[in-house]
Amino acid sequence: MGKDRGLKMRIGIDIGGMTIKIGLVEGADIIARKVIETNSKSQTPEALIKNMAVATAELLQENNLAEDSSAKITVGIACPGTVDPAKGIVLYSNNIAWEDVPIVALFKKQMPAAVALANDADAAALGEVLYGAAAGKNNAILLTLGTGVGGGVIMNKKIFSGYMRGGCELGHTVIDRNGKLCTCGRRGCLEVYASATALMQAARKAAAEQASSLMNVFCRNDLSKLNGKIVFDAQKQGDMAAARVIDEYEENLSIGIANIVNIFRPEVVILGGGVSAQKEVLTEELQKRVAGMCFGAEHGDVPAIVTSQLGNDAGIIGAAHLID
Ligand SMILES: [Zn+2]
Q1: What are the two backbone dihedrals, phi and then psi, of residue 263, each rounded to the nearest 5 degrees?
Q2: Is the pLDDT of residue 1 over 50?
Q3: Dihedral of alpha carbons 227, 233, 238, 243, sign
Q4: What gap in Å lies between CA 319 and CA 121, rounded to an integer?
Q5: Order of strands, edge to edge, in the sheet holding 98-101?
Q6: At a CB cut-off of 8 Å and minimum separation 6, what does 29 contact?
Q7: What's the gap in Å between 81 CA and the centre of ligand 1?
Q8: Sequence-ordered alpha helix ranges (H) in 76-178
Q9: Which residues contact 40 (CB under 8 A, 6 or more apart)?
Q10: How far is CA 286 from CA 11, 23, 135, 270, 271, in A?
Q11: What is the distance between the alpha carbons of residues 167 and 84, in angstroms, rounded to a whole number?
Q12: pTM for this structure?
């Protein structure tokens, strides 16, 4: 690693509900990585952040980047939930049950380095713009379709999260005012319809109601084994129940995307999270529907809808580049 002496070494840390992924990043490449368990319910935030710093120090040592280069190391941390990047505080994170944790200060206590913080979807969006699905673009929106629906907005290659903290929660924009109750307290949020969780709930219900559905055949009548791939596979083979579930899902997601397009008119909309594994099967259909919903679409200018290129690494890579 001697050739890199003098270069800035970047650490990207992506905190998840189950694991924390730490990567040593150079440009778009994660050249070494470490994973530790989150266990946020059985230890204090202080203890967990100390473990993160210890694992980071080990990763640097293993790559011969310990003491002599510590001044050149920058650390970016991506965390789910509402964060205050300016103050370096995690205000509230449901996934890891944290409230008002000064993560940047606590991390710096363990390791003297420049440390920055961002929401995880924001960091992933930055990663995709710098090195992934939106490389070469300046303005992009990322929607992660996973347990919930996360949103990241990049304007002029920078994360935009509003003036007040907690902005750009794109999953909590309402698409049906009389709709289902969301965990945030409102009804009809995009998240309630467009998350992977929502897709699976709808599919399980449809499969249970339609005994002859291929979805039941493909999961051998064990609906706990039903997954997104099975639902899309069943649809491809002409299964009506699966087709209805996916049609409803795509229509709701299209409404959400068109709303976002009408506000931001980005160059590209990137879909991440579990559902995005369907790639073109999903995006081609969404592209058609969204085109009909965008303001002034008949005059052109509907952004491309694409799927994530960096996948699960987007958060690490984006976090590593939070500090210029
Ligand atoms: Zn909501």
Answers
A1: -85, -50
A2: no
A3: positive
A4: 10
A5: 82-84, 89-93, 98-101
A6: none
A7: 13
A8: 103-110, 120-131
A9: 17, 48, 96, 97, 98
A10: 35, 33, 21, 12, 11
A11: 10
A12: 0.92
Cα of 144 from ligand 1 centre, angstroms: 15
Residue with tokens 């969780």: 197
In the chain, which ranges are E strands?
A: 9-15, 19-26, 29-37, 73-79, 82-84, 89-93, 98-101, 114-119, 140-145, 149-155, 158-159, 268-272, 304-307
- C-alpha 75 – ligand 1 centre gap (Å): 31
Kindly give the distance from the C-alpha atom of residue 184 to the centroid of ligand 1, in angstroms, as a whole number. Answer: 4
Ligand 1 centroid to 94 CA: how many Å? 13
pLDDT digits (tens, 9 = 90+) for 264-309: 999 999 999 989 999 999 999 999 999 999 998 788 789 999 999 9
Average pLDDT value for the chain: 93
Residue-wise pLDDT tens digits, 188-211: 999 999 999 999 999 999 999 999
Ligand 1 centroid distance, CA of 149 (Å): 9
Q: How confident is the model at residue 256 (pLDDT cuts 50, 70, 90)?
A: very high
| 113 neighbors 8 (Cβ within 8 angstroms) | no
CA of 74 to the centre of ligand 1 (A): 34
Q: Closest Cα partner for 141 from 121, 164, 112?
A: 121
